[in-house]
Amino acid sequence: MNAPNHAKDDTTGILFAGFSYVFWGVMPLYWRLLDAVPPFELTVHRIFWSALFVAGVALARRRIPHLLAIFRDKRLFATLALTAVLISINWTVYIYAVASRQLVEASLGYFITPLISIALGVLLLGEHISRLRLIAILLAAAAVLVQSVMLGHFSWIALTLALSFGFYGYFRKSTHVDSMDALTVETWILFPVTSALILFWGTHEAAAFPHTPLPVSALLILGGPLTALPLALFAAGVRRIRLSTLGFLQYLNPAITLLLATLGFGETFARADMLAFGFVWIALMVVSLDSYFNRAKAPVSNPEPA
Fold first, then answer.
1. Which terminal Cβ of the chain has fewer Cβ within 10 Å, N or C?
2. What is the pTM of this model?
3. How far is CA 282 from CA 49, 111, 159, 165, in A?
4. pLDDT tens digits, residue range 141-180?
């Protein structure tokens, strides 16, 4: 979703967007409460309860005719089916990173994501790229390579999170669909599969739901609204602020996650991590400088009245 080019930022918009990123940054605290649930099963419940919650929201917003129109549009439906798979992969890997105590690598992935988006714009949309942005992309690639070599294994969590969310953003950008409508369609595309899995698992004692204590089941159900709430706030905020402000706010999520991983959960921030994050942070500074220079060169125009 693209934000309009506002002349000024609306304070409410900053609060909405900022809170959504802070919310996403601290969500590992919630998923840690569900450590006993396998990551894939937790993702299935997250999709299932999200689907029920957003369906209720859609009814309250009287969006059913819009949703039916999306389901009838074969091309749009196919695109959202693809984004549903991509966001499912992203959620599963992220929850796995929380469960396996690898949040530092997850944070790196979300720092890399904006650079992946730039690369996709160049490779898939033929967008022009400056030398500074090319340098930034190469620095991001170097970060993953350096970390992989120094740690002795491929940084698949960071790269999977960055690529899945980068491609998710790329395909969602082409849909031009209301954010909550899109999430509703995505979760309901997967609803038959998640329903079948939960029913199947429910016949086995080892399943998390409904055989676990009531607090765990309640947390699983609450995961649905907690998935939709920050997205709704983000959608409300992004319409009220400038893209440059949004670009700054988006780093709240991985920054908070990194602090939570190292200071809260006691994860090690090794030399390989220092080098990898150093490369990525330099790359992001390069992109910021490039954006600043481009804005400085652009002619000043009078904004149209609202």
1. C
2. 0.82
3. 40, 11, 18, 21
4. 888 788 777 767 778 999 999 999 889 888 887 888 888 8
Q: How many helices (H) and strands (E) does the chain have?
A: 12, 0
Q: How confident is the model at residue 129 (pLDDT cuts 50, 70, 90)?
A: confident
CA 36, CA 58: separation in Å to the nearest integer?
Answer: 32
Say what the pLDDT of residue 256 is. Answer: 92
Q: In the chain, where are the structural domains located?
A: 11-297
Q: Annotate 244-264 with DSSP letters as a single string.
A: HHHHHHTTHHHHHHHHIIIII
CA distance 13 to 120: 28
DSSP state of 3: P
Q: What span, in angstroms and rounded, lies between the C-alpha atoms of 265 and 281?
A: 23
**Residue 260 structure tokens:** 């939570």
In angstroms, rounded to a whole number, what is the distance separating the alpha carbons of residues 107 and 161?
A: 9
Q: Cα(81)–Cα(61) distance, rounded to whole angstroms?
A: 23
What pLDDT does residue 304 have?
A: 38
CA atoms of 235 and 2, how far apart (whole Å): 10
Report whether 170 contacts 162 (CB < 8 A).
no
